[in-house]
Amino acid sequence: MTDRPALDPDQPHDLVGVGIGPFNLSLAALAHGIPTAPGNPRPLAATFYEQRRAFHWHPGLLLDGASLQVPFLADLVTLADPASPWTFLNYLRTRDRLFPFYFAERFHIQRAEYDAYCRWVSEQLPGLHFSHQVDAVRWNPDRTLFEVDFTQLDTEGEAEALGRAYTRHIALGIGTEPFVPEPLKPLAEAESVPVIHSAEYLQHREHLLKAEHITVIGSGQSGAEIFLDLLRARPTGAEKIHWLARTEAFAPMEYSKLGLEHFTPDYSRYFHALPESARDELVPRQWQLHKGIDADTIAAIHDELYRRTLHGGWPDATLTPGVSVRTAGRVATTRVELHLEHTQQATRTRLTTDAVILATGYRERPLDGLLDSLGPYLRRDASHRPRIDDQYRLVLDPTVTGHVYVQNAERHTHGVGAPDLGLAAWRSATILNNLTGTDPYPLPQRTAFTTFGLTPQHNPRIPAQGHALIPLAHGN
């Protein structure tokens, strides 16, 4: 397999997507059947590659009853094209489930149902290639095209064939990867020690429940759901669970209606226009917009803990915020010793446990490995991160005439809405409008009641209307 059979470079794709998670699946669904360019009725030629054998969305966290934190309207397409055949409601119609859903009166659907809906789209939509691992992306200046090298994998995940595709544009949707804090990496990588990331919780749940003492680390939604699941599965008075978090409290997610306007295109445009230093300072302060716990889960945890006090005594469950793990190590063969520090008290202690579940979130997968050959063309910011413009394109040298669009790799340039499912259809529509120049998906100029900043950032493709504040000189 030393040669890479190439598709005909004289008939390149218009778009190649790398990765098939919810965001690139949204892009693929909205790209289906739209025209290539103004006056050109030829449908957009788009293809997408994914290393996994099939679509799966966080399979280790599809707990019974766990719901999305966004309404069902935040599906792959509705907020850009509610008449699309790929809406969640059309999925229900094809399953004869519209009336049950209607009577269920659910605005927030279960996570497992969202996964099933996305899998349905991925199985019906043409142009998706699973078991295809993209190895490299290059710019070919002679052909003014991108070259995409890929490896086709067999059912065991082994290399079966090599290939190369040519395309005018790229869309990177390679997603995020589980984040393991540095002190716990050696233990998480050791097979004999039960330290796992929450992404693998369901695969290990049965084994974890046999542990005498369990520790959950992380104060976000995943940590809360796992703590609740463990609590419900343990006998009253013998729960033996610790729940630790670095945050100052097990805090609710910001879910007020005006607070949610931070997840609108209006806020994304405002954030993008801020100086880099202001953006970097702002993101950590906004953790409660996306790293908190929904109020229903907090209430369910408290209700379960309270129920266990009805006959006297307290549950053997310890919930401690404001704690960080300094170091960790083995005790005997399989037990774990955590060296803890309480930030506010400036005190330290040790905790010995039989299993650790790291609900420590995810980090954007680095783009550098995939884009090594584009390095000389790539423009970076002061922190050496890729610069991304307001149309979700990597800022490249002008000699590169094609575009590389990114999905969920732009939190540093677009803010906390980057990983939010509610902005998926909007971002996909923005990308396709920019790519084709046809505006197949007309987008509203305004999406929030809040005016972010004294100089509102309007959609650059839509003329501004109404009144605007006139900025005064400094000091006036």
What does this structure look like?
It is globular, with a radius of gyration of 24 Å. The protein has 476 residues and is α/β, with parallel strands linked by helices. Helix 1 crosses helix 13 and helix 7 (221-233) packs parallel to helix 11. It has 13 helices and 19 strands. The termini are far apart. Strands 1, 4, 5, 6, 7, 8 and 19 form a seven-stranded mixed β-sheet that branches. Strands 10-17-11-12-13 form a five-stranded parallel β-sheet. A three-stranded antiparallel β-sheet has the order 14-15-16, with no helix packed on it. Residues 463-476 have low confidence and may be disordered. A hairpin with a 3-residue loop joins strand 14 and strand 15. The chain is 25% helix and 22% strand.
